[in-house]
């Protein structure tokens, strides 16, 4: 109730997504593994895929140890 909102998390995660995107374009590495809590993963997908907030909040929350593949 008094924690971060999904938008607060997004503001932090978007910076990391941009750093990974920059290194992704420059490196020969084409696969990254992100291990994080569900809301961090949702925010990462929003930043990485340029999805609107409304789309992300309607997505199912990943379960414990669930693998989410982002293209």
Cα radius of gyration in angstroms: 12 Å
The helix tally amounts to 3
How many extended strands? 0
Oligomer: single chain
Task: Walk me through the topology.
Blueprint: H1 6-26, H2 38-48, H3 53-58
Helix pairs in contact: 1-2
Give me some keywords for this one.
3 helices; globular; mainly alpha
How would you briefly describe this protein structure?
The protein is mostly helical and 71 residues long.
Q: Can you describe this structure?
A:
13% of the residues are buried. Helix 1 (6-26) packs across helix 2 (38-48). The chain contains three helices and no strands. With 71 residues, it is mostly helical. The termini are far apart.
């Amino acid at each position: 109730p008094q924690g971060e909102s999904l938008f607060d998390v997004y503001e932090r995660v978007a910076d990391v997504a941009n750093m990974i995107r920059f290194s992704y374009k420059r490196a020969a590495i084409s696969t990254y593994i992100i291990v994080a809590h569900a809301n961090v993963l949702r925010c990462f997908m929003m930043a990485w895929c340029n999805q609107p907030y409304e789309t992300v909040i309607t997505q199912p929350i990943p379960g414990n140890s669930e693998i989410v593949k982002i293209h």
